[in-house]
């Protein structure tokens, strides 16, 4: 018996009477090829553990503070202060990561953030003055951008392979959605089942464990770039419009969350709001994996307006479901459909950030995009709360749709010119 191979066709020769062709072996899928890269599985698993608390901290803080102090206003103010502090501190931490290396900066920055979380827990537990809550939660702003560090590793390992980088960006976005889908549910479960501080405590342990395991994967860590000449990525051509798009997208996410909670509360099903929002994240997660499995058509700069246009077209669905039916079930289906547009927009945006960020400052560029999102989420949450309270929860769904239209206008205004055919 012997085998003969010709191109992709394999023929097995079992003798003069038993020769039959076998089906050509299937090439592995894009994600299987992605995780065949040495070291990819180890740093991805550790990063997922470190990233899960990002969806837990704010919910845990709100439940913990409101449950013990009896004030949602105080809880909201504390979390908003932490968000504002993150917007200021995160780019600085990211610049240090690019300059000195991930392990050297991320570990002490995480320790500082964990100590801030534990301080918040103790201050709530012992009934310390309100100002201590603000100070403690502000210290968590040193939490490094774990998603950005993971994307920087993919950029190093897959340098020059744009097809694989596209799949990696899509996977990272799906991972973000998965963490923000499971995080709030896990936080609410821990706080409700055990004690109000359980969510914050578990999130702090997961963050520290994940970052330590991630930093230990030195073989895939990008090299430290030291001091890089040139200005901030903010001055790079094409970056400011992307940050404006991120700001508008943040308004979409922040307003949608608050308005959905208000709508569910108005219908007497506030406890179901988390599950409804989880469907939106599930739609984005599934779309991200599908988007990463297909070959991208054309440059990312040309794809972005089309992706944002799809989001702008789908976001009126929750408004129609809430206004015309008043049903939480129909709203959940509308959010599931609308969520499918999120991942393609975010993947394409982050691809452009990577392409336009100066060498040696990738983590800083990624973190600036995240900071834009956080700023938009803060604005969207405030505007969504005001709209839901004064105009009604159903009317509040017009705000995310308007923000998506604004993002579309910005992306169209800065799209690259078409090349003339000769």
TrEMBL record:
GO function term, MF aspect, one: transmembrane transporter activity
Keywords per UniProt: Membrane, Transmembrane, Transmembrane helix
Transmembrane parts of this sequence: 42-65, 72-93, 105-124, 241-263, 275-294, 306-324, 330-353, 365-388, 394-413
Keyword Transmembrane recorded: yes
SUPFAM superfamilies named among the record's database cross-references: MFS general substrate transporter (SSF103473)
InterPro entries (alphabetical): MFS, MFS_trans_sf
Record protein name field: MFS transporter
Keyword Iron-sulfur tagged: no
